[in-house]
Design a protein that fits this description.
Layout lengths: L2 H14 L6 H11 L7 H19 L1 H17 L1 H6 L2 H26 L1 H5 L5 H21 L11 H12 L8 H11 L4 H29 L9 H25 L6 H19 L7
Helix pairs in contact: 1-2, 1-12, 3-11, 3-12, 4-6, 6-9, 6-11, 8-10, 8-13, 9-10, 10-11
Length: about 280
């Protein structure tokens, strides 16, 4: 695979990372239709996600700055700070703790399930199935969710449930944003709040995974997949620019619209993939 292939995959990564349609599934599928017909690999996917998460850092810079500032002050000063802090400052510090709580499940599962992440989870039969199943789960959660809560109602137990949902994104086809948004909607959070926390929660997990895989690419290049570091770096830059535009569009879109178009797309893509696999058009492994 060459530079043009990497740039195309970087474009796909940027377009799909934050939409609830699974960027990892799209990269996995797209790889089969490129000239080399090869899986780009978990390492390529994770490293290019550094670019998309940098887009989150830019878009939500003021929110993240307030969260980090309040959280560090709460840790360094302790009870004295909590007694003197404003309601908003306490809420921001609490959000920092809830992001940590929500990140723990994927850290544990992601570290212990590396064999499956690089192997069995990338079967296109599994990808096609979860595209459909989790699309329907998102539809049900979005339709029947109570829609009465915002992030001021977020609790430690809800943060942990969000985190457990995020671990499912280790399977290409589930979608990190799709799984966590579906959990948020199930718990009764409105679309904007569910999506906002989903994006914030992803930051430590995705950056941690990305830099872990970058280290893997540097120290064990035989596990890095078909691309070299130059191609991966170029794809990551493309993913950053495209993702920044997608985030801005999506946050406007969900303020007034449902996730149903994404559900229909997921079911259609998963069904088409099952047909292609059944007909032997593409190799599932």
């Amino acid at each position: 695979m060459g530079l043009l292939d990497a740039l195309l995959l970087g474009l796909i990564q940027g377009l799909t990372e934050f939409l609830p349609i699974s960027s990892s599934a799209h990269l996995r599928i797209a790889g089969e239709f490129l000239p080399a017909a090869t899986d780009p690999g978990a390492t390529f996917t994770a490293i290019t996600q550094i670019g998309t998460e940098l887009a989150v850092l830019v878009y939500f810079a003021s929110d993240i700055g307030r969260i980090l500032g309040s959280w560090f002050r709460s840790v360094s000063v302790g009870k004295t700070w909590w007694a003197r802090a404003s309601r908003d400052e306490r809420a921001q510090a609490r959000m920092g703790w809830l992001i940590i709580v929500g990140t723990l499940p994927i850290v544990i599962v992601g570290y212990t399930a590396q064999e499956y992440i690089r192997g069995a989870f990338r079967s296109l039969w599994l990808v096609a199935t979860v595209l459909i199943v989790f699309g329907l789960i998102l539809a049900a959660a979005d339709w029947w969710g109570r829609k009465t809560r915002d992030l001021t109602n977020l609790t430690a137990s809800h943060g942990l449930l969000y985190g457990l949902a995020q671990t499912l994104a280790l399977i290409p086809g589930v979608s990190r944003s799709g799984a966590t948004i579906a959990m948020g909607r199930t718990l009764g959070y409105d679309r904007v709040s569910a999506t906002r926390y989903s994006f914030l929660l992803a930051i430590p997990a995705v950056l941690g995974s990305g830099f872990y895989e970058l280290n893997t690419a540097l120290t064990r290049p035989e596990l890095a997949g078909p691309f070299g570091l130059v191609e991966i770096a170029a794809a990551t830059v493309v993913a950053f620019g495209v993702a920044l535009a997608v985030i801005a569009w999506l946050m406007r879109y969900i303020a007034t619209r449902s996730f149903m178009p994404f559900v229909i797309y997921r079911v259609a893509l998963g069904s088409a993939l099952l047909i292609a696999l059944g007909a032997g058009v593409i190799d599932p492994l």
